[in-house]
From TrEMBL, chains A, B:
<dbReference type="InterPro" id="IPR043132">
    <property type="entry name" value="BCAT-like_C"/>
</dbReference>
<dbReference type="GO" id="GO:0009099">
    <property type="term" value="P:L-valine biosynthetic process"/>
</dbReference>
<keyword id="KW-0808">Transferase</keyword>
<dbReference type="GO" id="GO:0009098">
    <property type="term" value="P:L-leucine biosynthetic process"/>
</dbReference>
<feature type="modified residue" description="N6-(pyridoxal phosphate)lysine">
    <location>
        <position position="196"/>
    </location>
</feature>
<dbReference type="InterPro" id="IPR033939">
    <property type="entry name" value="BCAT_family"/>
</dbReference>
<keyword id="KW-0100">Branched-chain amino acid biosynthesis</keyword>
<dbReference type="InterPro" id="IPR018300">
    <property type="entry name" value="Aminotrans_IV_CS"/>
</dbReference>
<dbReference type="Pfam" id="PF01063">
    <property type="entry name" value="Aminotran_4"/>
</dbReference>
<dbReference type="GO" id="GO:0004084">
    <property type="term" value="F:branched-chain-amino-acid transaminase activity"/>
</dbReference>
<keyword id="KW-0028">Amino-acid biosynthesis</keyword>
<dbReference type="InterPro" id="IPR001544">
    <property type="entry name" value="Aminotrans_IV"/>
</dbReference>
<comment type="function">
    <text>Acts on leucine, isoleucine and valine.</text>
</comment>
<comment type="similarity">
    <text>Belongs to the class-IV pyridoxal-phosphate-dependent aminotransferase family.</text>
</comment>
<keyword id="KW-0663">Pyridoxal phosphate</keyword>
<keyword id="KW-0032">Aminotransferase</keyword>
<dbReference type="InterPro" id="IPR005786">
    <property type="entry name" value="B_amino_transII"/>
</dbReference>
Amino acid sequence: MTYQTANISIEKSESTKINSVDFSKLDFGKVFTDHMFVCDFENGEWQEPKIMPYQAMTFEPSARVFHYGQAVFEGMKAYKDHEGKVFLFRPKQNFERINKSAERLSMPAFPENYFFEGLEELLKLDNDWIKPGLGNSLYIRPFVIATEPAISASPASMYRFMIICSPAQSYYNSPVRVLVAEHYSRSANGGVGAAKAAGNYAAQFYPTSLAQKEGFHQIIWTDADTHTYLEEAGTMNVFFRVNDTLITAPVSDRILDGITRKSIIQLAEDLGIKCDVRPVKVEEIKKAAKDGSLKEVFGAGTAAVISEISAFQHKEELFEISGAEDSYAKLFKQTLLNIQYNVSEDKHGWRRAVK
Amino acid sequence: MTYQTANISIEKSESTKINSVDFSKLDFGKVFTDHMFVCDFENGEWQEPKIMPYQAMTFEPSARVFHYGQAVFEGMKAYKDHEGKVFLFRPKQNFERINKSAERLSMPAFPENYFFEGLEELLKLDNDWIKPGLGNSLYIRPFVIATEPAISASPASMYRFMIICSPAQSYYNSPVRVLVAEHYSRSANGGVGAAKAAGNYAAQFYPTSLAQKEGFHQIIWTDADTHTYLEEAGTMNVFFRVNDTLITAPVSDRILDGITRKSIIQLAEDLGIKCDVRPVKVEEIKKAAKDGSLKEVFGAGTAAVISEISAFQHKEELFEISGAEDSYAKLFKQTLLNIQYNVSEDKHGWRRAVK
């Protein structure tokens, strides 16, 4: 069946894969819903957006994304409450950020009406893939790739914007152990670290695999110049609780402006928890771990929501974090989930109902 | 027609596009030859390599290369002498470097026999696309992309290695004007700058476009920490001639180990030209430009061969470089071309004849 909304041409899938999916055993990002949103940029403008059955697509081997990594993405989630209503969490932040990332990579901005119309129509069509219940969600992946079939090392003239969706449980279920970077780096001053640029992620795979061989799940990156300041964890921003004060690094051109991060900073203010946004020295956190004032460390990101960090290692020295009884991580996680799943009041207007 | 070599299954194209190509007006990297080489990595090993007609291919929207930039490439050229013999230039260096790049991005190494057998068979099939005459060449683009259809931010388990070929003239024909980076950066200490990683290139597009608006062709990148040392130009390494001494920055984890670069260093030794490989301060080069001792600046890379740089700007200060009568750039370019096109002796064994 095909039909048309205000701006979008929709081809509905004739069948659904949903019955073949075990929603109790979901690996992150492996299963996708029945539909996807596609919009091409050609001749200087975005062409008619389409929703079509989820499918493989044809690309020229010379498509610039394959050669020069001109690609950006976002990560969002849709949540369903027990009445079956579907919500997004601060989606305008994702929309604005993907265009900011695109600008840093010399890619054209995507129109706001196409973005939200596409997203809403997609969620309507694939509504059954969004399962209610805290922790269940539909992970939404908007992304833009350079498709121009020419390998000169310059911005492309052709792009594809897509949204694909994957049912998800939370990304890290158990507390994670992290290694503090001493040699490798995630990003440079004046680089693309603040953008959700595709290449930022592959660049972390090798150092992360070395850390994993030593028994750690993730790396907390430090500044590339001196490796003395704690920055972010690649898929998460990081918070430290020293006594009853939260500390997190300021965003910069090296650190992603995380939406979960900024929500936690706001929630801390609401809850009367002091949150210092300032450069965080590795030595300061080690000292706090030694004298017992380091109560908690946790990561925050859309995929991970909030991940408690149970241990970190720096220069061969391992620090176990026992965790606090009045856990801030748990408090923030519950508060966020309650907002996201329409359980509690939403005084900042972060929820956006999908009609 | 299909047939089989030692390791490769070959499907020959039934027709050729060559008659539709104007070889006197080639835009870099837009036209591709009749065949391509493809080899997939699955189940922990490289599968049977194939040569097939050049064509678009199907990819899942969740292929990891689209999301996390897990992709590396090489740039090589094939040259034809006036007897119709075809040569590669130090191809083993490219083979070793693509595997070094792959390692840094947690990708599997490609087997040497597949690489060279694929390359040679491809060049035999597309021999007519290699035009004789200095400056004409066949640009060869080996690349590897992560194809696994799953968007978890970790190394893929499925890859595609490909070689595509595009007839080329030299990349920069006229002298280029460059801007010295003051704010933006190409790479970090401990990052992936030394790898030919796809994401390194898209990261340069935006700052380069800003420089182009000011009338410059390229950026010479500086160290991200202090912006006081000159590093490389993104698609070229850079050499400075002060009086009769060449200076170029040492390779590092931020600077690509260029094959043209290392060939020039060797040729300088052969020709009795002093070449200092050491960190190069911006201020030192500005001072040399002011006192007249800066005779030449040039870039060196496979695509560009050697590009004379006629001017550079740093902090609003513009320096025009008049060029020397006994140009080292021209001398190295001619010496390299003579080796590449089988005109002169090849005492280092850099040429490799394609049988």
